[in-house]
Design goal:
Elements (H helix, E strand, L loop, with lengths): L4 E4 L6 H12 L5 E4 L8 H7 L7 E4 L6 E4 L1 H12 L10 H4 L5 H22 L2 H6 L6 E4 L4 H18 L14 H16 L9 H11 L2 H10 L13 E5 L6
Helix pairs in contact: 1-3, 1-8, 5-8, 8-9
């Protein structure tokens, strides 16, 4: 099979691109990436060719009548699970283990899969207070004044983390093994790293530990390192009072 191509936006800002990119990396899928400049005319030919919605990320592979185009991060996740990996992205287990019948493991896998799919969908379609007031901005440390809607979303996120992580090892992912949920909540971790301390937002210990686990993930570290080399500033994705900058724009 032709190596898939993942079209993504600026790594400093594009949270949806990170979700798809991290999912492919975490599940060992060999792919090429093509980065476009968000909201820039230079991106138009690529988006016109591959992206029906004009947005990233987009996953494409194959040619002619066999060309596969998948847009929207949730659709990419489903497609990856169905066609591109031997693991079940909702449980992190091999599909043979996740689908094993007549065992307690099958029951646990089914419960975890349902919970994982639910919180991925919740992240995909909701939590707009947090997402609008705390845009991903990896290079920045910034202070905001979170609204009640934003704080309510953060409470909900911390509740999800507590539900998933209670009783697990300190360095655990949400369901033990890395799953789609960790990929979808990765930008939340980076948002908290940007805004929480500077904005006097107190996080629960379980949230802090999960953030540390995710920030130590080598794929997230690689994404962050690339993001810090970028110099473009997109005003639409800047929020709050910038306290400090890291990377190429640090001064």
């Amino acid at each position: 099979m032709q190596k898939p191509l993942l079209i993504i936006g600026n790594k400093n800002y594009s949270s949806w691109s990170l979700r798809a990119w991290l999912l492919l990396k975490a599940f060992g899928i060999d792919f090429n990436e093509q980065l476009i400049e968000l909201f820039d005319n230079s991106a138009r030919p690529i988006l016109d060719e591959h992206a029906p919605t004009g947005k990233v990320p987009v996953l494409v592979y194959g040619q002619g009548d066999n060309k596969v185009t998948v847009w929207d991060t949730l659709a990419i996740a489903i497609h990856v699970n169905d066609y591109l990996t031997d693991k079940n992205i909702w449980t992190g287990l091999s599909k043979s283990d996740a689908d094993a019948h007549n065992s307690s493991q099958h029951s646990i896998s089914k419960i975890n899969s349902a919970y994982c799919q639910s919180i991925v969908s919740e992240m995909h379609s909701g939590l707009m207070g947090m997402r609008s007031e705390m845009p991903m901005n990896i290079r920045a440390t910034a202070k905001i004044n979170p609204s009640p809607a934003c704080l309510a979303d953060l409470d909900r996120i911390e509740s999800i983390f507590s539900d998933c992580l209670t009783g697990r090892a300190e360095d655990s992912f949400l369901f033990g093994h890395f799953t789609a949920a960790d990929a979808f909540f990765a930008p939340v971790v980076l948002r908290l790293h940007t805004y929480a301390n500077a904005s006097d937002i107190t996080l629960k210990p379980v949230t802090k530990q999960y953030c540390e686990t995710m920030l130590n993930n080598p794929h997230i570290q690689a994404w962050r390192e690339s993001a810090l080399t970028e110099t473009r500033i997109i005003e639409e994705d800047e929020a709050g009072q910038i306290v400090s900058l890291a990377g190429a724009l640090a001064g």
